[in-house]
Amino acid sequence: MSDLARIGVAIDSALLARFDELIEQRGYANRSEAFRDLIRDELVQKSWESPDADVVGTVTLVYNHHVRMLNEKLTDMQHDHHQNILSTMHVHLDHDNCLEVVVVKGKAGAVKKIADALISAKGVKHGRLTITSTGAEL
Amino acid sequence: MSDLARIGVAIDSALLARFDELIEQRGYANRSEAFRDLIRDELVQKSWESPDADVVGTVTLVYNHHVRMLNEKLTDMQHDHHQNILSTMHVHLDHDNCLEVVVVKGKAGAVKKIADALISAKGVKHGRLTITSTGAEL
Amino acid sequence: MSDLARIGVAIDSALLARFDELIEQRGYANRSEAFRDLIRDELVQKSWESPDADVVGTVTLVYNHHVRMLNEKLTDMQHDHHQNILSTMHVHLDHDNCLEVVVVKGKAGAVKKIADALISAKGVKHGRLTITSTGAEL
Amino acid sequence: MSDLARIGVAIDSALLARFDELIEQRGYANRSEAFRDLIRDELVQKSWESPDADVVGTVTLVYNHHVRMLNEKLTDMQHDHHQNILSTMHVHLDHDNCLEVVVVKGKAGAVKKIADALISAKGVKHGRLTITSTGAEL
After folding, report:
1. What is the ipTM of this complex?
2. Is residue D128 domain-shared with residue D64, that is, in the same domain?
3. E strands within D15-123?
4. Window 50-89 of D, Cβ < 8 Å to C
5. What are phi and psi of D135, to 5 degrees?
6. Is residue C4 included in any domain, yes or no?
7. How many distinct structural domains can be found in chain A?
8. Do residue A66 and residue A41 come from a single domain?
9. Most CB atoms within 10 A, among A31, B44, D1, D76?
10. C129 secondary structure, DSSP code
11. Mean pLDDT value across residues A45-59
C-alpha cells in the first residue's frame, strides 16, 4: 500500500510480555503486524456504524436443502440484489444440511438489509453477517 | 427435521407489538420462525464455549494478493489442515484486494487455532472467524 | 406493565429439548421468561443503532488510583456531563486498582461520546460501555 | 505499574492517519495510550476464555421493583454468593424501573453462573454481564 511510517510506542514491560505471549499463540510474525491488525479491526467496526459507508460483508447461512423451495427462494433473493452480491459458495455439510456463504458489497445499510432478508428466510437454521471491508483503505 | 411441538408463550402485549415490528422489518414470515432463530443462535454460541464441541465456522480474510508469497502461504496453511477445511471461495474485490472465505469444520479448539493462524498471516488486512454449526442438531 | 398476551409458537421437538436444557442451566423459571429475555435483548440492541434513541448504559472502568490526578480528572469529566450521569459506584479491588461503574442516561450518541472520553482517559486500564434501556418500553 | 519499554511499530502512513483520526475522536491523549488500551482489551477477552481465570465483572440489571418479591429475591441471591460479590449500586430510573449494577469477582466460571442466575430471575427485564479484570496484571 502506501509508504511505511515507523512510530514509537511506550508500554509497560509486564504488559508487553503478556502481549508478546498472546501474539505468539496466535501466530503473528512480529508485533507490528499484530498492532496493524488491532487498528484495522477498530477501523472496520467504526466504518459499519454509518449506513452510507461502503462495506463488504459475508453472510453465512446453514439450512436444510430439503425444505421445499428454500434453495430457489435464496437464489431468487440473491438475484434480486445482484448489484450487491459478488459471489456465493455452497458447501454440503451432510445429507441434509448445507452451508452457504454470500459475499455482499455496498452501502452498510443496504448490506444489512440483504443479510436480514436471507437470515430470516423460513428454513434457514442459522445465519450471521460478518463485517469486513473492501481493503482499499486499510 | 424432527416432529413439531406447539408451545404457549405468555408475553406483555406492548412488548409483543415491538417484537412484531422488529421481525417484520427483518422479513420474518411469522413469529415462530423468529423465535426459532433466537433459540438456535443461543445454542450455537453456547456450543462454541466447549473446545471439544463439533462446530462449523467461516474464516473471512481480506488481503492484497500482491504481497509476496501470501497467496502461496495461505494455500499451504489450508492444505496443512485439509481434514478441517471444507472449501474456499476467492473473490476479487479490486485490482489489489481479494476476499477469501474458508469454511472450517472440526473441534471448536482446532477451528479457532486454524482461524488464528490464517488471520495473523503477514499481509492479511482483516480477518474474522464466524461461528455457526453443522446444522445437524438445530 | 401492560396486559399479557398468550401466543403459540411452533418448534421442532428436538430443538425445544435443547432449549429447555439451556434455560434450566441458566436458571429460568419457565420458557416464557426466557423468550421474553431473548426478545428484550434484541430490542435493546436495536434501540442503540439510532443515535437519537433514549438509552441507559453503564461504563465500567478499571484504573490505578495512584496515577496522578486521574481520580480528579474522572470526577471532573463526570461533573461536566452531570445531566447524563445518574450515579457512580467505586470499588477498591486491591491496594492499587479501583473499579468504577458510571450509570449514564441520554441520547445514544451522547452516551457513547461520554463513554469514549472516560475509557480513553490516560491511566484507565480497561473500560467497557454496556448498553441497556430505561426499562420503560420493555 | 512496571517499568516502561519503548518499542517501534511499522505502519502504513495512510493507515496511521486513519488511526490518528479515530483516537482523536475518542479523546486519547496520545497513540501509546490507545495502543495499550487495544492490547489490554485483547488480554481481558482472552482471560475470560478459561473458567479458572480470576476475573472481575459487572452485572447490569434493569427491573420493575413492583414485581412481587423480586427485590428480596435478588438480594438473597447476592447474599448467597457474598464471597463473590463486592458491591451493588441501585439507581431509580423512573417510578417503576430500577437499574442495579453488581460487581462480581472470582473464577470466570463462577462469575458467569452468578450472572446467569441474576439475569434469568423472573421480572428482570434486561441483564448483561460485562467482563473486565482485577487490573493487577494489566
Report:
1. 0.91
2. yes
3. 54-64, 85-92, 97-107
4. 56, 58, 60, 62-64, 86-89
5. 80, -15
6. no
7. 2
8. no
9. B44
10. E
11. 92
